[in-house]
Amino acid sequence: MADIALKINGRQVTVPEGYTILEAAETVGIEIPRLCYLKDVHKFGSCRVCNVEVKGAKALQPACMVAAANGMEVFTNSPRARRARKVMVELLLSDHNCDCLHCERSLRCELQELARQVGVTEARFEGEQNFGGIDVSESITRDMTKCVLCRRCVSACGNIQEVGILSASNRGFTTEISPAAGLPIGSTNCTFCGQCTVVCPVGALKETSHRERVWKALANPDKYVVVQPAPAVRSSIGECFGMEPGEAFTGKLAAALRRLGFDKVFDTNWAADLTIMEEGTEFLTRVREHLTGGKSVLPMMTSCSPGWIKYIENHYPDELDHLSTCKSPHMMFGAVIKSYYAKKISKKPEDMFVVSIMPCTAKKTEIARHEMKNDGYPNVDAVLTVRELADMIRDAGIDFTALPDEQFDDPLGLSTGAADIFGITGGVMGAALRTVYEIITGRELPFPNLHVSPIVGLDRIKEAFIKLDNVRPEWAAAEGLEIRVAVTSGLAGAKQLMEQIKAGTSAYHFIEVMGCPGGCITGGGQPRSKDVTETRKLRMKALYKEDEGKKLRKSHENPDIIAFYKEWGEINGHASHEYLHTHYVPRGIYNELTDETFTVRR
Ligand code: FES
Q1: Is 148 in the pocket of ligand 1 (CB under 6 A)?
Q2: In the chain, what are the domains?
Q3: pLDDT of residue 459
């Protein structure tokens, strides 16, 4: 691609053809104020905050939309550009609910920051206020009095995830971004992936908070409160305290949770290893049935991601038997805590309160599902996103950066490297193959670093074919079989794979789907970022490093998992089926096949 040369604020700038003015300015360290634009997510030109003056052009130009051109002369800070920018922000504030003291985005709100940046010090205009109701679902809360109509959420839901439940309705001051027909979000085919909450610049879309629920349990002397953080949490929690992404803060995370007062600080990673034992065995059973002419349903699809589960239930209710019956790792963990572990410490299930720290908003809906109960009690009682946990750590006056590194508690805190990569697209598949391949052949998977093999990446679908030869005698029927696996992250890729299954043309035996692009590392409950792509890469790096740093990197080698099964019983056995496996609910597009919705109140 040819380079082009232009001048920005008198500085000579050379950039590849196709760069916008805003991107060209960034290459020389000039940051043009913006609101609706978000790199790699949304480019729509709706707010006009990024307006700049271009020599020879009559009107001001939106820098995020207009391509830089040869010989162009741009002025980002001319009096005209600065005046217009300030007026645009003042107009945005004129119909905004400016009750900032009661907004949880206060001090972390892009509009607030922008108003300060452009010098807004008084409310000069008064617009009509839209004080409609607040829409609260199990996972996501919508407060349209805070919406700035930037439409980032529309892009995240429609273009990236291809679910498309959000769009603009009405006109003028009554314009609202909402599901079709103004339905509450919990009554729609929203997957609750939370990608809209990550990109929202203000307090209009956010997770439904469980913080008070957790504080209350921690203060209750009759509750034994156990906490478990998901694999991806360690890769991102540091960012909430000003640390750069790219490193896992596992030890500080364990220490912070202990300081918050949890009775036991365990690790969802332990349950990720457990999941591999259950899911890997389930896959092997399906393959054996397939090889012996039985009626096994293949491809088998992973079931760790509740956003993905809701998606398949809404859109492909006839294909639910392709899903593994395994609960997700944190739900397995909760079921184990309230049965096996409660008995060990002479407690009843009702005495236990299980808190999951998750990179995900859909997990909040998952714990409310009727199928996620055992012995009459929910497996997990509360889910905190990484953002909520960071708020609790601040609220408790804990200096995260100064904490020492501590270990998770025994016996449900030890994990292998296979568990760490659960947080990344391709990770569950990689972890499963490390175990499954070894069971069939007696040898290690030839490419244990599956993350550098061709199957992992951010393209929608990656595949790998793994030839089985010199297999163990008990697997003689599998000699020469090529196991075909596929991996996707984000629901757009899942849609393609499901269409193949529906048409009977799927070439795969095993498919991993993670509901969010890149996997849990950029899930809907993760810290917000101005450069999602770069942040995703760095969080991946952090988890791969955790995996590579572990002595044990295969789930079946976890000594605590081996010891657990000695007491629990067979893998995929009776207790496992009662506590660790589940079933799914056909829902239809608007949950019309079931009367269950996930709306809490409106
Ligand atoms: Fe460019 Fe909104 S940031 S138009």
Answers
A1: no
A2: 3-118 (3.10.20.740), 211-269+331-402 (3.40.50.1780)
A3: 66
